[in-house]
Amino acid sequence: MSTFGHLFRVTTFGESHCASVGAIIDGCPPGLELSAEDIQIQLSRRRPGQSNLTTPRNEKDLVHLQSGLEHGVTLGTPIALLVKNEDQRPHDYSETDLYPRPSHADYTYLEKYGVKASSGGGRSSARETVGRVAAGAIAEKYLKIAYGIEIVAFVSSVGKIHLPSTATATNSDDDNDDAPDPLSPEFRKLLDTITREQVDSHPTRCPHPETAERMTKRIIRAKDAQDSIGGTVTCVIRNVPSGLGEPVFNKFEATLAHAMLSIPATKAFEIGSGFRGTEVPGSAHNDPFIQRPDGSLGTLTNWSGGIQGGITNGESIYFRIGFKSPATISQAQPTAQYDGTPGSLAARGRHDPCVVPRAVPIVEAMAALVVMDQLLIQNSRRAARELLPPITTLPPTMVLPKKQGKVEEKEGGSA
Ligand SMILES: Cc1cc2nc3c(=O)[nH]c(=O)nc-3n(C[C@H](O)[C@H](O)[C@H](O)COP(=O)(O)O)c2cc1C
Asked: Which atom of ligand 1 is nearest to the CA of 350?
């Protein structure tokens, strides 16, 4: 289906070469000040034609708000928004009338529906993500105002070129496999401090300048060879309250994985220490508890990635997504036509040689949608519980102990 979320519910619509793409967002809280510009910022970060590293398809991607707000304030009613498709060139795809593109979605869509959009990727195209990014920008605005939540994604690898583990390290060769170590203090510092301005200071959206230059060369090399290359995007969500996530099937990380793996071209999802966490003993991997200045419990380290038991623990959430090398390449490739006739396909059309620079705002949007939905769910549970009188007969192991420190002082002061 094309709908994501429960209480903050987003339905996207549109194909790559139809009149428009967009979204309907149901469940946005009323009273949120919202302008087209709030949404446009993220759409412009996603749009094609931003640099020589992305597809030259020229779409301005200007958002048109249709409903759900008046005088710049949300009404609590469904918000409909659309973006016109302006630079369609269906004729670019005439070879693919005969050939399903290898590793694209032409064959599987046809198998599933028995009919498919006549040109481009149709619904499987990254044009569909316009609606997600617009909806995510709305969620993000609420999250920032109501909770101070910050979401920043960045490119952490292109091909085998990885953002180094330490701020000073540089890799000299093109095929270094030095993935950032989630257990390193340098990487944690990066997650604590990284900003979108830093990310956008280079067209690759990699925040390490030397690595970003090497990534640029790698993408250009793929492009010049009429080929493509993959990469990874890392994302951090800061200031998330504890208690979000719905055990057991809608655990926070399971919902994040669902959201991220619904983005086109994704092949992998890793939360917290991820695969690296399998290589260190529990004594090094455990996150010991400490008391924060406000009296609440925090953790000294954060290899869990801010989630335990499928529920947020108040630490930053961080995760990494693997994007494959885009399928559509103009290099001739032996394959078969729809009727099975062997042949060779050299795809025309304008395509991204590497999707990760443009995937950054899409990842941020999907992260915002997950946090927003889980927050509304948890807030409704909490509100329902707070209507009940406190139970004073429970054994101490069943309830939170009284907090020490500032929080209690504040509560004591107001009692
Ligand atoms: C931002 C972005 C841009 C993309 N651009 C292209 C592209 O130019 N050419 C292409 O073949 N695939 C591109 N893709 C990926 C395809 O949409 C995707 O691979 C295809 O729909 C098949 O789906 P799957 O890879 O998830 O199985 C892009 C994906 C994203 C996220």
From this structure: 8
CA pair distance 57, 88, nearest whole angstrom: 8
Which pLDDT belongs to residue 412? 32
Is residue 365 lining ligand 1, measured as CB closer than 6 Å?
Answer: no
CB atoms within 10 A of CB 23: 28
Q: What pLDDT score was predicted for residue 118?
A: 84
130: left (phi over 0), alpha (psi -120 to 50) or beta: alpha
User: What is the span of the domain harbouring residue 8?
Assistant: 3-412
Measured in residues, the chain has a length of 415
Alpha helices in 165-208 (DSSP H): 185-193, 196-200
Ligand 1 in reach of 223 Cβ (< 6 A): no
Q: How many domains does the chain have?
A: 1
Amino acid symbol at 346: A
Alpha-carbon distance of 286 to 215, in angstroms, equals 34
- State the pLDDT at residue 380: 98
Averaged pLDDT for residues 207-234: 97
pLDDT, tens digit, for every residue of 351-401?
Answer: 899 999 999 999 999 999 999 999 999 999 999 999 999 889 999 999 888
d(CA 365, CA 345) in angstroms, rounded, equals 34
For 48-66, b where at least 16 C-beta lie within 10 A, e where not — what string?
A: bebeebbbebebebebebe
Do 376 and 121 contact (CB within 8 A), yes or no?
no
Q: Residue holding tokens 């599987």? A: 108
Q: Yes or no: say if 246 and 312 are a contact pair by the CB < 8 Å rule.
A: no
Question: By the 8 A CB rule, do 228 and 326 touch?
Answer: yes
Average model confidence (pLDDT) for the chain? 91
Joined together, the tokens standing for residue 338 give 């729809």
* Three-state SS at 256: helix
CA 257 to centroid of ligand 1, rounded, Å:
18
CATH number, domain of 207, equals 3.60.150.10
Strands 297-299 and 63-65, how do they pair?
Answer: unpaired
Q: What's the rounded Cα separation, in Å, for the pair 257 and 272?
A: 12
Q: Which helix (H) or strand (E) holds 13?
A: strand 9-13
Q: Is the dihedral of CA 402, 405, 407, 412 positive or negative?
A: positive
Please state whether the predicted TM-score (pTM) of the whole model is above 0.85: yes
Q: Whose CA is nearest to atom 22 of ligand 1?
A: 104
